[in-house]
Write a structure and sequence with these properties.
This protein is mostly beta strands. It has nine helices and 42 strands. About 45% of the residues are buried.
C-alpha cells in the first residue's frame, strides 16, 4: 500500500466519523428479527459464506439490499440496483443482452459471448452465466447480497471480481397474494402479482409473474419506431415440500421473454466521414444534441431474449451436519438485428443469434451445531454449450459511401479502377449482396472441489480458511462465410500494373493505404486447423484466509487475504484472429488467409488477489461497516470494441486500492438516513499493446477508463402512521459517480459524471391496498454510459446516453 492510499484511508475514516455514521442499503431494514437485542437496528442474516450468519459476524465485504428497500425504491431489475449499491456499476450497451457488471471497478463480459463475466450472478444459488440471463425484471425478492472482491473459493470459476446473489421468497403455507398495476410516462404499463398457499401441512406452492411495457424514449427522426422501449414478461412457479423437520425440497421453474428495441446511440463526435454521409442525403445527428434522445437509424433495432430453467434444492439435516444439493438446468436463446452505422443511410446492418444451455450441480456438506471447529466441504459441476453467430450485411449505400470517401481523398473512381484491373464487373466491390457470416461453438466443462473451515480460537477470535480446486476445459469451433471480395485481395502483391505492384510505383503508391483502409473485414481463420489449438484446459487452486475478532457484542473487525480465478475466455467475435506467434506456422502450412490479421484467439486466465481490513458495528440507533482493500487482477481480460469487432487481450496487471463503507442512522422512530460509498485508486500496473485511440498503446501506469474514483449513495426515509391502519413512507435516494473517461480508445473529452436522484412515496392501508408514486432521475441528470468508435467512420465516436427522467404510479392489493 502506498503512502497516498494510507492517507486517503485515514482521511476517509475521519470523514465518516464526522458524518455521524450513517448507512447504506447494505444494512437491510427487515430480514430476520430473531434477536433479543433491544436496539432499533434489526439483525440481518446473509449467506455470503454459504452458511446462514448475521451480517455482523460474517467477515466478508458484503452489501445487502432487502426486499422492502427494493419495493419502496421501485427497483425493477439489477440495472436499477446500482443506485442503492455504490460498489456496483451496471452498463447496458449495444443490445439488451450486452450488459456489463463491475464491482470495485473490475468487470467484463460485455458484447462478446465468449467472455464470461468476472462478476458472477446467482439467483437462488443457481449461476447465470451470461447477461442475457440476468437482465430481466427481478422476481419476488427476499434480499440481494453484493459481495466485493474475489469469491472463487466458494462461488467457482467466474467470481474473480465479486458476486451478486439474489434470494427470492419461498412459498408460504398461509394463503397470501398480491396484484399490482402501474402506469408511467412513455406509456409504461406494469402488471405483476403472486399467489402462494399451502396445499397440506408439508407442501406449499407459489406462482408469480409480471409484464412490463413502455414506449421508447429515443424518438426516431426518420419515421421509424422509437428506441429504448420495454417489452418483457416473466412467470415463475415454486413448490416447497418438507416431509419432516429435517428434509426440505424446493423446486423452482421460470420462463421470461424480452422483445425490445435497444439501444439508443448518440453522436458524441462527428468526424470527417460525416460529410460523406450527408453528401449522400444521410442524416447524422449533430454532436451538440447528445441528449436530444433522437435516433437516425434506418431500421428498427430488434432484440429478443427467451430465458428459462428449473432448479431443485434439497436440504437434509443429519446428526451434526447438513447436506445441500442444488441441481439446475437453464436455457437462453437470444437474437438481434441492429443498424450499426448509426446513420439514416443503409450502410451496415448486423444480425445475430445465441443459444446457451447450462447444467449445474452443487453438493455441500456443512457442520451444524455450536462447536469450536466448523467445516464445510463441497463440489460443483458445470456443463455449458454455446452456439452463437452474427452476420454483417452490406447495405444499399455502402458502395456509394466508399466512392464518396475515396473521391474526397483525391482518388475518384478508385474502386471502379481496381475492379477493371481484376476484370471484375462494375459494382462487384461492396455490393448490397455482400455479407460476412461468422459462426462459433463453445463447449465448456468445469468442476471445482472446495472446503471451508472455521476455528474459534477463543470466544472472540475466529480463523477461517477456505480452499478450492478449479478445472475448466473449453472446446471451440469457428466458421466463416465472407463474400466481401475486396477485403480478400492482397493489395501488396496481387494488385499490379503490367506485372509491377502498384505499391512500388511512386505515382500510385499513395492509393494503397487508402484501399487498405477499406479492407475492414478480411477473411477470418477458421478453427480447428492444423496449426492452432482450439482447446484450453485450465486448473487452479484458490484460497482465502480470514481472521475475525469480536471486540464486543456490537463491534467486529476482520482481516482477509484471498485469491480468485477466472478461466480462459475465447474471442467469439469477427475479430478473432491467430496469435502472432502462429504466423510462420500458418504460412508454412499454406492456410494463412488473404490479409491475415494477427491478434489473439483468447485471453488467458485471470488471477485475482485481495487484502482487506474491515470493521462492522451496530449500536442502538445505527450501524456502520467499512472495508479497506488492496485488490489486484493479473491478466485482466480486457475486451475493447474497435468498430468492426472486439480486441481481446490480457492486461499484465490491474490493481485498485480503496475503501468501501455503508452505514445507517435512525434519527428517531420515523426518520432514517443511509450513506454509503466507495473510493478507488485504480491503475494498470502493466498493460502493453492495449487498444488505444490511435492503435496499440502502452497503458502501464495509467488509470483504467470507465472507473470512477468516488461513488456515493445517500438516502433519506420517512415512515409515518396516519390513524390506526394507514402507514406511509417517503424516501429520496442519491447516486454520485465522479468524472471518468468513458473508454480507452476514445478521446479524453468523452467522460462521465453521475448525479442522479430518485424518489418515491407510498401509503399502505389496513385493507391491503397500497399506493405508490415514484420518479427515477428526478433532476434529469445527463451522462453517457460508454462510448465507442463506429464501424468505417474514422474520427467519429458514438455514446450511449443514460435514461431520462421517468415517473409513474402503482396501486396494489395484498391479502
Amino acid at each position: 500500500m502506498n503512502v497516498k492510499t494510507v492517507q486517503i484511508f485515514k482521511h476517509s475514516l475521519t470523514a465518516l466519523a464526522v458524518c455521524g455514521v450513517l448507512n447504506s442499503s447494505a444494512i437491510a431494514e427487515e430480514v430476520n428479527t430473531n434477536s433479543e437485542e433491544k436496539d432499533d437496528i434489526e439483525v440481518i442474516y446473509v449467506t455470503a459464506s454459504k452458511r446462514l450468519k448475521s451480517l455482523q459476524e460474517s467477515p466478508v465485504a458484503v452489501t445487502v439490499v432487502d426486499g422492502a428497500a427494493i419495493k419502496q425504491s421501485n427497483t425493477l431489475d439489477i440495472n436499477d440496483l446500482q443506485t442503492l449499491v455504490p460498489t456496483l456499476r451496471v452498463t447496458p450497451l449495444q443490445r439488451s443482452t450486452n450488459t456489463n457488471f463491475s464491482i470495485r471497478g473490475f468487470g467484463n463480459g460485455t458484447n462478446n459471448t465468449g467472455i464470461e463475466p468476472s462478476v458472477g450472478v446467482f439467483i437462488d444459488g443457481v449461476y447465470r452465466s451470461r447477461a442475457a440471463a440476468q437482465i430481466g425484471d427481478l422476481p419476488r425478492v427476499q434480499q440481494i447480497e453484493v459481495l466485493s472482491g474475489p469469491q472463487s473459493t466458494l462461488f467457482g470459476k467466474n467470481a474473480s471480481a465479486g458476486v451478486i446473489s439474489v434470494t427470492t421468497m419461498e412459498p408460504s403455507y398461509d394463503l397470501e397474494g398480491m396484484v399490482e398495476l402501474g402506469y408511467g410516462n412513455y406509456n409504461q404499463q406494469i402488471v405483476k402479482g403472486y399467489i402462494t398457499n399451502g396445499l397440506s401441512d408439508t407442501f406449499a406452492v407459489s406462482l408469480s409473474g409480471g409484464y412490463n411495457a413502455r414506449d421508447g424514449y429515443a424518438e426516431s427522426i426518420v419515421g421509424l419506431s422509437d428506441v429504448n422501449d420495454r417489452d418483457r414478461w416473466n412467470i415463475r412457479g415454486q413448490a416447497l415440500y418438507e416431509p419432516t423437520e429435517d428434509v426440505k425440497f424446493r423446486l423452482i421453474a421460470d420462463y421470461s421473454e424480452i422483445q425490445e428495441a435497444c439501444c439508443a446511440v448518440e453522436d458524441s463526435i462527428n468526424g470527417p466521414t460525416t460529410a460523406a454521409v450527408r453528401a449522400l442525403g444521410g442524416i447524422v445527428i449533430d454532436e451538440n444534441d447528445s441528449f436530444s434522445y433522437q435516433s437516425a437509424l434506418n431500421s428498427n433495432p430488434d432484440n429478443n431474449v427467451e430465458d428459462g430453467g428449473a432448479s431443485l434444492q434439497i436440504d437434509v439435516d443429519f446428526d451434526g451436519f447438513a447436506l445441500t444439493s442444488i441441481s439446475a438446468y437453464r436455457s437462453n436463446d437470444s437474437g438481434f438485428k441492429n443498424d450499426v452505422d448509426y446513420t439514416s443511410l443503409d450502410i451496415l446492418t448486423e444480425g445475430g443469434h445465441t443459444e446457451i444451455e447450462t447444467v449445474t450441480q452443487e453438493l455441500r456438506l456443512t457442520s451444524t451445531g455450536e462447536r469450536d471447529f466448523e467445516w464445510m466441504v463441497g463440489a460443483y459441476l458445470f456443463h455449458e454449450e454455446v452456439i452463437t453467430g452474427d452476420t454483417l450485411y452490406y447495405g444499399n449505400d455502402i458502395r456509394n459511401y466508399f466512392d464518396v470517401l475515396t473521391a474526397a481523398g483525391g482518388a475518384p473512381g478508385l474502386l471502379a479502377g481496381v475492379e477493371g484491373v481484376y476484370g471484375l464487373e462494375p459494382g462487384t466491390f461492396f455490393s448490397n449482396t455482400s455479407a460476412v457470416n461468422s459462426e462459433f461453438e463453445q463447449k465448456n466443462d468445469s468442476y471445482s472441489l472446495f472446503a471451508s473451515f472455521d476455528y474459534h480460537i477463543t470466544e472472540q477470535l475466529t480463523a477461517i480458511f477456505g480452499v478450492s480446486y478449479i478445472n475448466d476445459q473449453k472446446d471451440i469451433t469457428i466458421e466463416q462465410t465472407n463474400t466481401d471480395v475486396f477485403s480478400a485481395i492482397d493489395l501488396d502483391n496481387d494488385l499490379t500494373l503490367f506485372g509491377v505492384p502498384i505499391g512500388s510505383i511512386p505515382q500510385l503508391a499513395p492509393a494503397v493505404p487508402v484501399l487498405k483502409g477499406l479492407q475492414f473485414l478480411p477473411p477470418m481463420m477458421e478453427l480447428p486447423n492444423v496449426v492452432e489449438n482450439h482447446k484450453t484446459d485450465d486448473s487452479k487452486t484458490t484460497w482465502s484466509f480470514r481472521l475475525a475478532y469480536e471486540i464486543n457484542n456490537n463491534v467486529n473487525i476482520f482481516a482477509t487475504a484471498a485469491t480468485g480465478f477466472k478461466a480462459t475466455s475465447w474471442n467469439l467475435s469477427r475479430y478473432s484472429s491467430p496469435f502472432a506467434s502462429d504466423q510462420e506456422a500458418l504460412e508454412t502450412a499454406g492456410i494463412s488467409q488473404p490479409n491475415q490479421a494477427y491478434g489473439g484467439r483468447y485471453a488467458s486466465p485471470e488471477e485475482a488477489t485481495v487484502y482487506e481490513l474491515g470493521i462492522k458495528t451496530r449500536f442502538e440507533n445505527g450501524a456502520f461497516n467499512a472495508t479497506f482493500f488492496d485488490q489486484t487482477i493479473e491478466g485482466f481480460q480486457s475486451s475493447i470494441f474497435i468498430g468492426t469487432g472486439f480486441v481481446l487481450a490480457n492486461a499484465g496487471k490491474q490493481s485498485t486500492q480503496g475503501i468501501e463503507f455503508d452505514s445507517k442512522y435512525n434519527l428517531n422512530s420515523d426518520w432514517s438516513i443511509t450513506f454509503a460509498g466507495t473510493y478507488l485508486d485504480p491503475v494498470y500496473d502493466s498493460f502493453v499493446g492495449a487498444s488505444g485511440l490511435d492503435g496499440p498503446v502502452d497503458l502501464s501506469g495509467e488509470k483504467p477508463a470507465g472507473i470512477s474514483d468516488l461513488s456515493l449513495t445517500a438516502g433519506l426515509a420517512y415512515n409515518y402512521e396516519i390513524g390506526e391502519d394507514i402507514y406511509g413512507y417517503a424516501r429520496v435516494d442519491y447516486l454520485y459517480e465522479s468524472d471518468t473517461k468513458l473508454a480507452e480508445n476514445v478521446p479524453d473529452s468523452l467522460t462521465r459524471e453521475v448525479n442522479t436522484v430518485n424518489a418515491s412515496t407510498g401509503l399502505a392501508f389496513g385493507n391491503g391496498i397500497n399506493l405508490q408514486l415514484w420518479v427515477r432521475n428526478l433532476t434529469n441528470d445527463e451522462y453517457l454510459l460508454s462510448a465507442f468508435p463506429p464501424p468505417i467512420q474514422a474520427g467519429s465516436f458514438n455514446g450511449y446516453p443514460n435514461q431520462p427522467r421517468t415517473f409513474g404510479a402503482n396501486i396494489s392489493y395484498e391479502f
